[in-house]
Design a protein that fits this description.
There is one protein chain. The protein contains 4 helices and 19 strands. The protein has a 6-stranded antiparallel β-sheet, with no helix packed on it. Strands 11-12-13 form a 3-stranded antiparallel β-sheet, with no helix packed on it. A two-stranded antiparallel sheet has the order 1-2. It comes from Thalassoglobus polymorphus. One of its GO terms (biological process) is bacterial-type flagellum-dependent swarming motility. Its main location: other.
Length: 251
């Protein structure tokens, strides 16, 4: 019976965590480049690989097989016709920030700061293959052109090429903020330069988030029902335990 109580409590805990992730996804559904978060269950093969120590740890932790991860499938493109809205078609990430602590994103909504750097909305510098992407002071935004390989020109004068990198395994990236990711292994061995055969840059467009609100709402209803069912089961089991205790006491 105690196993049933434990199972119901674990189900409620998992449903509550899934509810939090769905709410977060819905809240960020309109942010360009946002990658939805999800909780994944362990596979049958994972269970076969568990050791006795793993089983004991899992039993005490009360969180069976629920691991947070990001869904890196691409989102739909939205044409904005804004010169500094840039989308990546295919694999890869923009490189943001300083060389010693680069961050990575699919959010291609950029602007220009007072020094002429192309920056994100929060002021982080977009990196080119030869350093920060910098434009001449007083550049008119409408004069900026970005071709499909990421080369940036102003009035037909080439100024550099946007750096785009890709990883062998995106799942190893660590989320920083809303649309930024950090590579925990900054050795560089997992980074490769843009493969121009498979990746294109599209100026005047933004990649939207990969959140599908209707799908999230359907999942939200399913999670709520799962939580309610587990809650009813837990209450029933607790009443049974209480009755059993009272019988043993002779009351």
């Amino acid at each position: 019976m105690l196993h049933g109580v434990y199972g119901a409590a674990v189900t409620m805990d998992g449903a509550a965590r899934q509810h939090e992730h769905i709410a977060k996804n819905l809240a960020h559904a309109q942010i360009p480049g946002y990658r939805r978060t999800q909780l994944t269950q362990g596979t049958f093969d994972d269970s076969l690989q568990e050791t006795t120590a793993d089983l004991i740890a899992r039993s005490s932790a009360g969180t069976r097989g629920l691991e947070e991860s990001h869904d890196f499938t691409t989102g739909p493109l939205e044409q904005t016709d804004r010169p500094l809205d840039i989308a990546i078609q295919g694999e890869g990430f923009f490189v943001i920030g300083e060389r010693d602590e680069p961050l990575y994103t699919r959010n291609g909504s950029f602007t220009i700061d007072q020094q002429g750097n192309i920056v994100t909305k929060d002021g982080r510098t977009l990196q080119g293959t030869n350093g920060p992407m910098t434009l001449p002071i007083n550049t008119v935004v409408e004069d900026i052109a970005v071709d499909q390989s990421g080369r940036v020109s102003v009035n037909q004068i080439e100024l550099g090429r946007i750096k785009i990198v890709q990883f062998e395994d995106n799942e190893k990236l660590v989320n920083v903020g809303t649309t930024l990711f950090r590579n925990p292994n900054e050795s560089g061995s997992e980074i490769t330069q843009l493969d121009v055969q498979n990746t294109r840059v599209q100026q005047g467009s933004l990649e939207k988030s990969n959140v599908h609100p209707v799908q999230e709402l359907v999942e939200l209803i399913a999670v709520q029902r799962r939580y309610d069912a587990a809650s009813r089961t837990l209450r029933t089991l607790m009443r049974t335990v209480e009755q059993r205790i009272n019988l043993q006491r002779g009351t």
